[in-house]
From TrEMBL:
This is NADH-dependent alcohol dehydrogenase. One of its GO terms (molecular function) is methylglyoxal reductase (NADPH) (acetol producing) activity. It comes from Photobacterium angustum. InterPro entries: ADH_Fe/GldA, ADH_Fe_C, ADH_Fe_CS, BDH-like. Residues 185-354 form the Fe-containing alcohol dehydrogenase-like C-terminal domain. The lineage of its organism: Bacteria, Pseudomonadati, Pseudomonadota, Gammaproteobacteria, Vibrionales. The keyword Coiled coil does not apply. GO terms for cellular component: cytosol. Its cofactor is Fe cation.
Length: 383
């Protein structure tokens, strides 16, 4: 296990009725800007709960954050923060709203030439507007980490800073009951792949992290299909919500290598073709497992045994079976597992490879050895 320093400052308020806790979580003297997406929070009761909790506060709102938050939209919120003097942000929505709010928090305090450089040039974030969040779609883990992904046209880029970790996050499983089956499936798959990318690398004798990750994988495999079959089961939703947070709050990733290849290639699929983020992951991960089976052999065999109970047959047979069972789980969740499933073909791979090069994604994986040529092989395998 590698050395590490771990801190997560986000306070979690978990359970039914916890939206009311924001009245105590936000300082009373703050002017609060509530940021949300397309307005579903007004039909599922979340908006009313937030409004009640903010009674007595000086607050306003900004709506219209897209499922893949767009820079131009977010810059309108930045302008509002500056002109109206907001000094606290409250994201209400899924990971995209939280990601977008993190960018607003950083961009509102940015002193350089172009706030896009926070993402494009990875210019350091030195000051932010403080923020909290009310999560309504468990998937990304953004509610308790310092990462954010923002799009501008076909460019979908990441930035990270501990300064944009939310001060608090409200996780009420009740808010997820109004999600569509597609949103539920996407959330489960996103959390699953987050876990896999921090787990499926090579052994470093990090037994705690491995067992934590395996517990999350088991939970998502068990509960994900239940969430589709029995959508009103609040206990199932609670376990999924907490799993998604734990998958990317930093805990299972400390002291271990990580391979974000699936995410980086997935970002290009979303940026160029508008495919749901989680659905790009379900397409790319099986191909990564196949192409990188030699480099990941030890962890693939561990995954095969501990997650699926595969202990007989040759190493290759067990790895093949584990990959097939992973694909079967994705299919059970109703998400695509090949490029063909989303009407993409070999001609589209050239576009994706050029986008990877444009964004500097030329040395991916836990070994930094996935070149554009290997990325092409992964995409060809995903056809």
């Amino acid at each position: 296990m590698d050395k590490f320093t771990y801190q997560n400052p986000t306070s979690i308020h978990f359970g039914q009725g916890q939206i009311a806790s924001i009245s105590q979580a936000i300082p009373k003297d703050k002017k609060v800007l509530v940021i949300y997406g397309g307005g579903s929070i007004k039909s599922n009761g979340v908006y009313d709960q937030v409004t009640a909790a903010l009674d007595g506060f000086n607050w306003g709102e900004f709506s219209g954050v897209e499922p893949n938050p767009q820079y131009d939209t977010l810059m309108k919120a930045v302008e509002l923060v500056k002109t109206e003097g907001y000094d606290y942000l409250l994201a209400v929505g899924g990971g995209s709203v939280v990601d977008g709010t993190k960018f607003v928090a950083a961009a509102a305090c940015y002193q350089g030439e172009d706030p896009w450089n926070i993402l494009l040039k990875q210019e350091p974030v030195t000051k932010v507007v403080p923020l909290g969040c009310v999560l309504t779609l468990p998937a990304t883990g953004s509610e308790s980490n310092g990462g954010s992904v923002v799009s501008r046209g076909k460019d979908k880029l990441f930035f990270g800073s501990p300064l944009v970790k939310p001060a608090f996050a409200v996780l009420d499983p009740q808010t997820t009951l109004s999600l569509s089956p597609r949103q539920v499936a996407n959330g489960v798959v996103d959390a699953f792949v987050h876990t896999m990318e921090q787990y499926l690398t090579y052994p470093v004798n990090a037994k705690v992290q491995d067992r934590f990750a395996e517990g999350l994988l088991h939970t998502l495999i068990e509960e994900g299909p239940k969430a589709l079959a029995t959508p009103d089961d609040l206990a199932v939703r609670a376990n999924i919500m907490w799993s998604a947070t734990q998958a990317l709050n930093g805990l299972i990733g400390v002291g271990v290598p990580a391979d974000w290849t699936t995410h980086m290639i997935g970002h290009e699929l979303t940026g160029n073709y508008g495919i749901d983020h989680a659905r790009t992951l379900s397409i790319v991960l099986p191909a990564v497992m196949k192409v990188r089976r030699k480099e990941k052999e030890a962890k693939l065999l561990q995954y095969a045994e501990r997650i699926f109970g595969l202990t007989t047959g040759t190493a290759d047979q067990r790895i093949d079976a584990a990959i097939e069972k992973t694909i079967a789980f994705f299919k059970q969740m109703g998400v695509p597992t090949t490029l063909t499933d989303v009407d993409l073909g070999e001609k589209d791979i050239d576009v994706l490879i050029e986008s990877l090069k444009k964004h500097g994604m030329i040395a991916l994986s836990e070994h930094l050895d996935i070149t554009p040529e290997i990325s092409r092989k992964i995409l060809m395998t995903a056809l």
